[in-house]
Design goal:
heterodimer; A: about 375 residues; mainly alpha; MetI-like fold; 2 domains; 15 helices; flat; B: about 260 residues; alpha/beta; Rossmann fold; six-stranded mixed beta sheet; three-stranded antiparallel beta sheet
């Protein structure tokens, strides 16, 4: 409640927007398209009004919705005027933007304090809070790149990246198919399965444990930059060589984690199996593998990101004219930075989805682990 | 009855020495003991007296380094391989990824019982330990006492006539422990199993046992074997009778004698 009593963000936002009012205009005199009086009036009414209303003792839900709408509408009006006015934003512009940012902060902290009983509303809140947070990263990025006129080559504004992304969906989709659906998935499945199988072999046969593990250790130290061109030599330009790089990259984390996991079962649990005269495979499937699951999923999660990195980097060393790594390396050479960023955005999205799917699988499989338990 | 004289556990001059980096540790030396069918034998002594080690030798979780031991007339290894004992550990050691039902089914799965038989046995043993209705719960959703009862049910689920219990109630509070002791006695009377029970509580040992083995440390050996004169039917109140107190006194004397030359 103490946070409700001292809405310092609102007070500061009010002060900043009043300061902005004193240092008008919002754009430098040389700006080709000035803000109309009506537009400026709307922006200030929205920002100052929201700051004032948020000082009143009103319900948190009402206040946060009001702040959300006003702060973002005002920001939208400002940002929309930036196109064509690159590098012409005045200090007053950034003061109002800062005020709106503070109001959005206030909105999020109000949302964080709301305690809801229904599961639906709780899930909605869980989405809305990080969404506002993420949106402000984009808003500030857009305002700073356009407002300060940062060169396109250095950092394109997110709106330009978004436009490029939408315009090149067929190209991007073809790249995703080539890199992710062929190289990454195949390499990931084979690499993880091989790491797992070798871990079981090493556990079962001392010869493997003593002889193979040090060699596998060496394999983990292989630099991907060195391995990738060799794999291209061996397996050709198409996705098979990229899948081979992914296999090399994902094999070792899986091996090490599975071996560690197989040792995770407690001595009492093992004695119990021994008292049942259980054989090696029964103990493995009924005790040691379930106990190893948290470790195995750890490796699956690490590998989900490693596999994507491996496949993209491997495409820098020879590839047919499709693929995410190929696109990045050629478009940066042609100074099409927005396309590079679009490809990065797609890679981030694919990586997150991949990781998310594995994490969901983990929650379903290791629900019993103290870190996942819900009574 | 001739059958009642059958020796379930028979140890002669049994010794076990652990080789450690600090030199040999004599965990057991010259242990002679007979456990007859249907006995409830408690092993009591201070920590380090080898009572748990002795139980583990019976279960073939450790091997003796000298002397002889037979369990059910066989070597401990063959007894273990014929799956003829159930072991209850100090902690419940239930697998957290299995429900209580599935935990009890674990030995049955390993021993290839049919699905129908499994179901019937799970129900029966859950009833025996008063856990009916908790089969679908996960171990971590139950209290410590309930978890330990589930682990007893797991040891009872298959046909083993010998039950080895290693301080099963050591981690529980006294009220729960009293309650479980009472239930254990009833269960023993109903199932007519032979029970070897390790404890460090004198009242628990005297209340439960037909025979109390007092042990002393360094090296672990048997200092006294007391045959209980208490009747088989024992309400909790029996612990205030002079007979009970006399046995408890003798146990305490035995423990003190084992300790005396240490100082």
């Amino acid at each position: 409640m103490s946070n409700l009593m001292r809405p310092w963000q609102s007070l500061l936002a009010l002060a900043l927007s009043l300061l902005a009012l004193a240092t008008l205009p919002l754009l430098m005199p040389q700006a080709p398209l000035a803000f109309s009086l009506m537009l400026m009036f709307s922006i200030f009414v929205l920002t100052i009004g929201a700051a004032l209303v948020s000082l009143l003792p009103l319900p948190a839900l009402f206040l946060s919705v009001m702040l959300f709408v006003c702060a973002h509408f005002s920001t939208g009006l400002m940002i929309a005027r930036l196109a064509g006015n690159e590098g012409a934003a005045s200090p007053a512009f950034f003061l109002v933007l800062a005020a709106n940012w503070l109001l959005a902060w206030r909105c999020v902290s109000l949302l964080c304090e709301i305690r809801v009983r229904s599961k639906m509303a709780d899930n909605l809140l869980r989405l809305v809070i990080p969404a506002i947070f993420g949106a402000w990263i984009l808003i500030l990025w857009e305002a700073l790149t356009r407002g300060l006129g940062i060169p396109f080559i250095i950092l394109p504004p997110p709106s330009a990246i978004g436009a490029r992304l939408v315009a090149s969906v067929p190209t991007l989709w073809a790249d995703v198919q080539q890199t992710v659906f062929k190289a990454v998935i195949f390499g990931y499945v084979v690499g993880c399965a091989a790491g797992f199988a070798v871990a079981i072999l090493a556990d079962r046969i001392a010869f493997f444990r003593r002889g193979l593990l040090p060699v596998a250790n060496l394999m983990s130290a292989l630099p991907i930059i060195g391995v990738a061109p060799i794999m291209v030599m061996w397996f050709g330009f198409d996705w098979q060589s990229k899948a081979a790089v992914v296999i090399v990259m994902t094999f070792f984390p899986m091996l090490v984690n599975t071996i560690a996991g197989l040792e995770a079962a407690g001595s009492m649990e093992r004695d119990l199996m021994r008292s049942y005269a259980s054989d090696y495979w029964q103990t493995l499937t009924k005790l040691r593998l379930p106990a190893a699951m948290p470790f195995i999923f750890n490796a699956l999660k690490i590998n989900s990101t490693l596999a994507l990195i491996g496949a993209i980097v491997a495409e820098f060393f020879g590839t047919p004219i499709v693929g995410m790594g190929f696109r990045i390396s050629t478009e940066i050479g042609r100074m099409n930075v927005d396309m590079v960023w679009a490809e990065i955005a797609v890679a981030a999205l694919v990586g997150s989805v991949f990781y998310g799917v594995v994490a969901l699988g983990e929650r379903a499989t290791t629900f019993w682990h103290p870190s996942n338990r819900s009574r | 009855m001739a059958e009642n004289n059958f020796s379930v556990v028979s140890a002669k001059k049994l010794g076990l020495t652990f080789e450690t980096s600090d030199g040999p540790v004599h965990a057991l030396s010259d242990v002679d003991l007979e456990v007859k069918r249907g006995d409830f034998v408690s092993f009591i002594g201070p920590s380090g007296c080898g009572k748990t080690t002795f139980l583990r030798v019976i279960a073939d979780l450790e091997s003796a380094t000298s002397g002889e031991i037979t369990v059910n007339g066989m070597t401990p290894e063959n007894t273990r391989k014929s799956r003829s004992y159930g072991y209850v550990f100090q902690a419940p050691a239930l697998y957290p990824w299995r429900t209580i039902e599935k935990n009890i089914a674990l030995p049955l799965e390993i021993m290839n019982y049919s699905t129908a038989e499994r179901k019937e046995r799970i129900e029966r043993t859950l009833d025996l330990v008063n856990l009916a209705g908790f089969g679908k719960k996960y171990p971590w959703q139950l209290s410590g006492g309930m978890q330990q009862r589930a682990s007893i049910a797991r040891a009872l689920a298959f046909d083993a006539d010998l039950l080895l219990m290693d301080e099963p109630f050591g981690a529980l509070d006294e009220i729960v422990r009293d309650h479980l002791n009472e239930q254990l006695l009833k269960l023993w009377a109903r199932t007519e199993k032979t029970i070897c029970f390790v404890t460090h509580s004198i009242p628990e040992a005297v209340y439960l046992s037909t025979k109390i083995v007092v042990m002393s440390p360094r090296p672990g050996r048997v200092t006294d074997v007391i045959t209980s004169t208490l009747p088989k039917d024992r309400p909790l109140e029996i612990r205030e009778t002079p007979e009970f107190l006399a046995i408890a006194h003798r146990v305490r004397e035995g423990l003190r004698a084992g300790h005396s030359y240490e100082e």
